[in-house]
Amino acid sequence: MDNKDAMSKEEKKVTDRINELYHKKEKEGLTPEEEAERKELHKKFLANFRAAFKQDVENMVILDKNGKEVTSERAKRAQRKKGLRKD
Predict the structure, then answer these.
(1) pLDDT at 1 over 90
(2) 78 or 2: which leads in pLDDT
(3) Taking the alpha carbons of 75, 59, 79, 8 in that order, is the dihedral positive or negative?
(4) Of 50, 51, 66, 77, which is least packed with CB atoms within 10 Å of its CB?
(5) Residues linked to residue 69 through DSSP beta bridges, in sequence order
(6) pTM summary value
(7) How far is Cα 78 from Cα 82, in angstroms, rounded to an integer?
(8) Residue 71: how many CB atoms within 10 A of its CB?
(9) Given a cut of 80, is residue 7 above it in pLDDT?
């Protein structure tokens, strides 16, 4: 199992627990401990989402309609730093 698979399982566990707490909150309410857990899980979910989104954007190569690369210099620098670009 590689790191991506492990993250996916961890993210699924976090999402599943967030959903459980949401449904419980709608039906009967949450204890203060559960509300604190929900907030921490939400922070963890957002941090994971932002990290994955940033990685996707940094790895993106943008081409114009003529096939010419127009990737931003910031993205190119990030790609070079990660060893994804040779230029």
Answers:
(1) no
(2) 78
(3) positive
(4) 66
(5) 63
(6) 0.69
(7) 6
(8) 13
(9) no
Q: How far is Cα 77 from Cα 59, in angstroms, rounded to an integer? A: 11
Which residues lie closer than 8 Å to 45 by C-beta, 6 or more apart?
Answer: 11, 14, 15, 18
Closest CA to 59 of 85, 31, 30: 85
- What was the pLDDT predicted at 84? 86
How far apart, in whole angstroms, are the C-alpha atoms of residue 49 and residue 11? Answer: 9
Q: How far is CA 78 from CA 50, 58, 62, 68, 82, in A?
A: 16, 6, 14, 20, 6
Q: In angstroms, rounded to a whole number, what is the distance separating the alpha carbons of residues 13 and 37? A: 13
Sequential DSSP letters for 11-47? HHHHHHHHHHHHHHHHHT---HHHHHHHHHHHHHHHH
